[in-house]
Write a structure and sequence with these properties.
Length: about 60
């Protein structure tokens, strides 16, 4: 379980770094900076969740083959 938590932290940092290159402020109305940051955080956490579960399951099932 510690491995999965460590993967979450590492992948979350990577997804935040990767999403930092996208300017999502243009999609929002004027003066909605905090709303765009909240969406940015939610999307990065969702991507981290999906990537970690994929990687964890992939390595878990590939070791038993």
């Amino acid at each position: 379980m510690f491995l999965k938590a460590l993967l979450y932290v590492i992948v979350l940092i990577i997804t935040i770094w990767a999403l930092d290159s996208i300017n999502i402020n243009n999609l929002f109305k004027k003066n909605k900076y905090y709303a765009s940051r909240v969406l940015y955080l939610i999307v990065s956490m969702a991507l981290a969740y999906l990537v970690v579960n994929f990687l964890y399951d992939f390595f878990l099932y590939s070791n038993f083959s």
